[in-house]
Amino acid sequence: MIPAPAVVDALRRRRGPSRATWLGIALFSPALVYILALVGLPLVLAFLYSVGDVTVGSVGYRFVGLYNFRSVLASPAFRRALLDSFVFTISSQLVVIVCANALALALRERFRGRGLVRFLVLLPWVAPVSLGAIGWKWLLDSIYSVVNWVLAQAHLVNRFDPPMWLGQPALAMASVIAVHSWRMIPFSTVILLAGLTSIPKEIPEAAAVDGAGFWRTHFQITLPMMAPIINVAVLFGVVFTFTDMTVVYILTRGGPYDTTQVLPSLAFFTGVLGSDLSEGAAISVFLVPILVVVAILMLRVAHRAEIA
Amino acid sequence: MAKTGRGFTRREFVKAAGLGALAAAGAGAPGRARAQPKTLKIIQWSHFVPAYDKWFDGVFCKQWGEKHGTQVIVDHIAIGEINARAAAEVAAQRGHDLFMFLSPPAAYAQQTIDHSEIYQQVAKRWGKPIDLGHKSTFDPKTKRYFAFSDSYVPDPGDYRQDLWAEVGYPHGPDTWDDLRKGAKAIKDKRGNPCGLGLSQELDTNMAMRALLWSFGGSVQDVEGRVVLDSPQTVEALKFMRALQKESQTNEVFTWDPSSNNRGILSGKLSFVLNAISVTRTAEKENPEMSQKIQIVRALKGPVHRLACEHVMDCYVVWKFAQNPEGAKQFLVDYIDAFGEAFKASEFYNFPCFPRTVPNLRELISNDPKGKPPDKYRILGDVLEWATNVGYPGYATAAIDEVFNTFVIPTMFAKAARDALSPADAARAAAREVQRIFDKWSR
């Protein structure tokens, strides 16, 4: 006699979750623990600290409400860092997307040495960021700058008064944007290259038969088809850039006079070096609403890309 | 369940055997603990003078460890990593028994033992500490020492004698006014700029405080009230603005703590404010340049002749230290041996207990490496012009945050670059300092 479906369901419920479900839980648990321990807990602590009076040396905790937020809003250094964070992020992402597009188009084509070029393009991403930034610090050094030496040899700058790449506000911001972009371009290139190779060849070929040139094909066919993947690259880039302080910390330490200070570096200076953990946490918590919006956008875009 | 011949089950047997093994291990443990030497863990910076680290690690710590049956482990870290490492150790409540800061760590007062006992023991043998050491490690509110300072590093001026002689100052500048006139003359004649940093780094922090104090300004008064927004501060800012325009280049906004060393050693700069690491490096690596670089006292301003210590060695024993008694004893014994430390540091570290180096003036006046041998003689009266970072008050947690968030260098840099007028720069910085002081007093 074959048991009725309702009876089978009842039996399954009595036995509890299936082996497949247990396997799923076992595979998922490490990631969950990892996220809770290394992302969730610090985030909760940051919120707690931001409304408390915690310093690096304090032993207790006292709730102070929004005192730390009022305090940082009164600070010109904070307001400058907030502005710089947007300038740094938006500018570097513009540079990254334009360059990554060009690189992806070039690397899609077959040519001798393509493997080597792909390897070289990836180097800035795989090398430790601190090493790369220290290298750039020396390249842009005030005394031993190779960049200035080359420019002086080419008679493009005065060797006795060369540009101070990290010493003038506009040049310093341009330098940190350039170095950060140099580091991020490989990541976006790989993403865009994957998107580009997934476009069926017949589509651009059909456009070519219809008389469309390179630019028309690129802007009216390729780019629209790649829009979801470009969005993913941009949103990841925004998150990485908004939360990064390595390049700024190593190249300029926020100088000259706070003109390249960004929120993560200011939070570090205030919280760890300046000993006021609560105010440092309040500064970093300002990033949360921005990052939440970006995260929601990322999830939506990823969902749309999945559907497409 | 199967039973053995005498009524033991297998499980009971295994349990009994396990307990027996644990008991044996437990009985053996004290024996092993007795056999293991005690450990003393120390962390401090990689000294600018490598010979000091060789002496400290290889001679003093080794001998002290042998004498006290203790394994002494010394870890060295870069100067810029000290505060982050301290914060990490406190957060984990684990780390080293002795932690050395290079500026007064008042913010950590609640995490450190009261160091009064160490001061008292040392004072019995070597007399009272200098005021600079006292004000850098004593909390007037709690009446306790949150750290112990063994030494400090003077911050004289380093000048190129050949260049300064050409413009009528064969012995270098003596006043801030001399500096402005001479540096301009050198830049106009030879192109060599002056090198006072205006960046967010240690040397700028020290140099700008020296300038501020010499003009009569200060961050706080004796009572710890914020007094930065003053006519004296504005005058100091006007001076720096003029010096920047007349005699410096924009590279000073890019510097890290070693940039001015590199600048003067490469032959580019005419004057820097720095410790004698400049001249010591020249003696080793560039003897010709070494003869050209001489040192001067802190420059005299309209009100004072004052400079900050370049770095202030401050050892702390954490409350969570594993071997606090060993750490205390180590510091007491270290002061007994400070005469050797002074020589090993090549006169870089000056004693907070002057009696430990009774012949200091004689030693620095006859230095075999110095050219001329009395090159460092002017450091003999350093205590008349060196003071602590919180001058004229104590080095409090608020002063520590003002120091480590570079409020004073930023104020001077903004005025020097015309980002703000001197009066506005002073006002803005004073507001920022007041905000920080308010936080720490709540």
Structure, described:
The complex is a heterodimer of chains A (308) and B (442). By secondary structure, chain A is mainly α. Chain A has one domain (76-307): MetI-like fold, CATH 1.10.3720. Chain A has 14 helices and no strands. Chain A has helices at residues 5-15, 19-50, 67-73, 76-108, 114-126, 129-139, 146-153, 169-197, 202-209, 214-242, 246-251, 263-273, 277-285, 287-307. The longest helix of chain A has 33 residues, at 76-108. Chain A starts with a helix and ends with a helix. In chain A, 35% of the residues are buried. Chain B has 442 residues and is an alpha/beta fold. Chain B folds into two domains: 38-153 and 311-365, Periplasmic binding protein-like II (D-Maltodextrin-Binding Protein, domain 2, 3-Layer(aba) Sandwich); 157-309 and 377-441, D-Maltodextrin-Binding Protein, domain 2, CATH 3.40.190.10. Chain B contains 18 helices and 13 strands. Chain B has a six-stranded mixed sheet, sandwiched between helices. In chain B, strand 4 and strand 5 form a beta hairpin. In chain B, helix 8 crosses helix 9, helix 10 packs across helix 11 (277-285) and helix 16 packs across helix 18 (422-441). The longest helix of chain B has 26 residues, at 10-35. Residues 1-33 of chain B have low confidence and may be disordered. At the A-B interface, helix 12 of A face helix 3, helix 10, helix 16, helix 17 and helix 18 of B.
